[in-house]
Amino acid sequence: MIDVHTHLWDPAISPQYMADYFQKKKEAGKEIRMTAEELLAHMDRNGIQKAIVLTLAFHSMMTNLELKTLHSYTAEQVKKSKGRLVAFFTVNPFEDNVMEYVEKYTEKDKFVGLKLHPNIQEFFPDDERLRNIYKYLEEKRIPVLFHTGGIGLSGIRDCFGNLDAIDHIACEFPELPIIMGHAGRIDYRRTAELLRKHPNVYADISTNFSRLHGKEWLMLKELMEIVKIWCGNTEKLLFGSDYPFYSQDQTTEIVRDFTKHNELFTVLERSDVDALMNKNAELFCEKYKLWRMKE
């Protein structure tokens, strides 16, 4: 089992809005330490063998020089995992020397993918100025994971997570491996359309949960059903948790709770949920050699 969507950073440098978010969790008895040891403990509890750690920019003005601090912490934590963790880097794509950072992180520092958060970084991902980055990643078969859909935080503009941009990128760079983080929540029909249309576009299921107590799995059910109806299968849906924003305990519990309601399955089968948990992400990582790239 592989979790394709986790984050680690030094909490001492968290921006205020993130510090406030985790303070509320702490007050609710859910203190989370953002270290490899803590993440691995969560993984062990949930039968997760490996995970991808995504470096996350905190705001739109972070320079590539400032982002080096985040990458150093991520790399340090990944080294402690004895091969169970690999990392994606991030960049401010609009600096003149951005390709120097892209090449350094992928070739020298052995980051195995790129994470971009258009909503927080405030850009449309199909901006022409990113073409050289995508061309380089496509040639190297290095994946890029975009935050897609809404983020749900006041003050952060969700227009930048529109899925049309993913279609534009995938049309121009058809061999570029793309993961739509959060599966474009909650534009599931558009998500399904892109999964069917583009062979190298995938989606992770992280944070697609209802707020109805006892029925948190409803949104996941809707996502999986729409994808299966349109694509014929759910093979391109990958397991992801968005740790530490959502715990792996919570994510796996909701997915497993879903399987208790077999009477609600229409087009879905138990095997679709089993593959989501145990197969789809593994096949993706093998296809793009993510752990071998790290070696």
Automatic annotation (TrEMBL):
Family matches, as PANTHER family: 2-AMINO-3-CARBOXYLMUCONATE-6-SEMIALDEHYDE DECARBOXYLASE, CATALYTIC_ HYDROLASE
Keyword Lyase (UniProt): yes
Provenance organism: Hominiventricola aquisgranensis
Gene3D superfamilies for the chain: Metal-dependent hydrolases
Keywords in alphabetical order: Lyase
InterPro entries named among the record's database cross-references: ACMSD, Amidohydro-rel, Metal_Hydrolase
Pfam families reported for this sequence: Amidohydro_2
Domain of life: Bacteria
Name of this chain's protein: Amidohydrolase family protein
Amidohydrolase-related domain span: 2-282
Keyword Magnesium among record annotations: no
